[in-house]
Amino acid sequence: MNKQNKRLAVAFTGPSNSGKTTLIEQISIVLHNEGFKVAIVKHDPKDKAKFDKEGKDSYRFSQTGADVAILSDTRTTLFKQQRSEINDVIDMFGHFDFLLVEGLKTIPLPRICVQREALNQNYFEVSDSLAIDESIDKEQIPKDMNILDLNNINQIIQWIKNNAKEV
């Protein structure tokens, strides 16, 4: 793939515990090892995510209601007390080659639906491709749905490289 300042984005959706996070983690590792810079956004629809650990300074600061940024020699962590739009987050990341988004079904990105154990057809209308393993009966999947092997990371990455949207 040509790395001429393209910022390509793709999203992942699927039922809880279907393997979305594990898949994104594996994809990120492979892309990073190929020399690409990867950014990841995870949607937290139930507002369950916690910032840092209780008792740590960053936790104490976030509990005051303030926006908090933590700068170190190797990373920056930002915690905002308000909702951000996806474009704001993309701008905060600056340069990246691939943006992997978990969730956020309403944003217009090419989308891979991850499903294991049971097939939930409610995700079909918001998905461009279906990543499944051997636990899913392919006969239950509409013939026009593109199927990816959940255990074939290289196949999924090739689909991403071919279908991701420039942002």
Question: What can be said about this structure in brief?
Answer:
The protein is α/β, with parallel strands linked by helices and 167 residues long.
Tags for this model:
7-stranded mixed sheet, alpha/beta, Rossmann fold, two-stranded antiparallel ribbon, 4 helices, 167 residues, globular, 9 strands
Structural account:
With 167 residues, this protein is α/β, with parallel strands linked by helices. The chain has one domain: 3-Layer(aba) Sandwich (Rossmann fold), CATH 3.40.50. Helices cover 23% and strands 23% of the residues. It has helices at 20-33, 57-62, 86-93, 153-163; strands spanning 8-13, 38-42, 68-71, 76-79, 98-102, 111-115, 129-132, 146-149, 165-166. The strands form two sheets. Strands 1, 2, 5, 6, 7, 8 and 9 form a seven-stranded mixed sheet that branches. A two-stranded antiparallel ribbon has the order 3-4. α1 packs across α4. It is globular. The model has no long low-confidence stretch (mean pLDDT 87).
Question: What is the fold's blueprint, element by element?
Answer:
Elements: E1 8-13, H1 20-33, E2 38-42, H2 57-62, E3 68-71, E4 76-79, H3 86-93, E5 98-102, E6 111-115, E7 129-132, E8 146-149, H4 153-163, E9 165-166
Parallel strand pairs: 1-5, 1-6, 2-5, 6-7, 7-8
Antiparallel strand pairs: 1-9, 3-4
Helix pairs in contact: 1-4
